[in-house]
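Good day; I would like, with your permission, to put a structural problem before you. What I wish to show you is a protein chain and, alongside it, a tokenised description of its three-dimensional fold. Thank you for your consideration; the sequence and its tokens are set out here:
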Amino acid sequence: MTNHVSIPNKTEVGINPKKLSYIVVFLYSILIVVWLYSNNIVISFVSIALSSLISCSIASILFAKYINSVNLSIELPTNIGMVDTLLDIYIHITNVFFSILKIRNVLLLTDPGLKSHLHKVELKNNTISIHIKIHGYSGTHVIRGILIKFDDIMQIFDISFKIVFKDEITIRIIPSSVIYIPSTITLRQYIPYAPLTLRRKGVGIEILSVRDYIPGDEYRKIAWKHTARLGKLMVKEFEALTHRNAIIVISIHSDFFTEYSDIFEILVERILGLTLGLVRLGMSIRMGVITDESIFISNAISKNNVKDIYEFFSTISWSHIERMIRNIYSSNKILRWFTRNLTEEYCKEPCLVMLVLDPQDNFDIDVLKLIYNDLKYRGHTLQVVLISPLILKFLYLRANLNEFHELLNKIPIIKTCIRLLKSMNIQSTFTL
């Protein structure tokens, strides 16, 4: 795939003096005075040379102010990658003033989940060819433009040139293959007993079948009557009663979309492992994700199309909403509406409904009560997984002292939520 952007939508030039720029300008003034009044030829020559370099730097800065249009083209061999792979992007920019400036760095104007580093820069006939390597976290990322940082000849000023693309570039990152998939015993905490069930081998009270003993089987499962009759050890297989279908609703606010850690990737990996484990048990899964900006709904995931879950996570757009206004636009605010619509649309029989969320305040706890009543009225079973960026970081990464204090401040709301869930006899857990 190759994208071409011929005309940028907007350009901005920024010029900021460095710390030593005022000293250089003062030195320039002294050199001019020395050149004018010195009778020594060597001193005069040195003064002229240095003052000429400074003059060129100042001239380049003056020219930079008038860079208001460029010819730009972009080549992107592919816009789909995986978490552990690098993608290439080639940018060609033509402007006559670029020949007198030196590129220090090139940054992509994008969300914090997409990383880039400058690989190679070439200048030929007033055209700068820039090769950038990019990689990122799972999801869909948008490149809105680039920021080029220049140095003048004497490196007196920081010169930045911002280009906003007329057509944004979309990059899709697919999660890596999941290594950890919960065992059947671990999955039991997510699969409560259900009246409308799928018959399968597992933990239960009804005997499904009897088979030959295999070393490692529990002795309490030995079928003694069959063993005595057949003259060899036989083991009872029990019938596990589970739902046939499950809805997983994940509410992710902006604190999960951060550049400083792998919090979002850890969350994706754990949910993928849980989903694949449930699919292995024969369940059909449909997933819905709410962010602060949008909602996403997957197709029904079963053993026949299990790879679709990876594609689904690559479609989740990274949030651009600032943390300071998150409480107003929190994804939890529409959690009840979203859950009700998903279950009404896709659950034609009683389903297991799993909510994965980070409760922010008492409003979110009240919403959990309403969701529980809605689902109970329709015969569904509710399971709640409490998550938090701070909890994930504390469990799987390194948390600093300030983050530890933030986690302590969050404990009261978590305790309140747990007490509510216990009072309603709702299964809940902190880890995936």
Remarks:
- Residues 16 and 158 are 5 Å apart (CA to CA).
- The chain has three domains: 10-18+67-174, 198-242, 245-429.
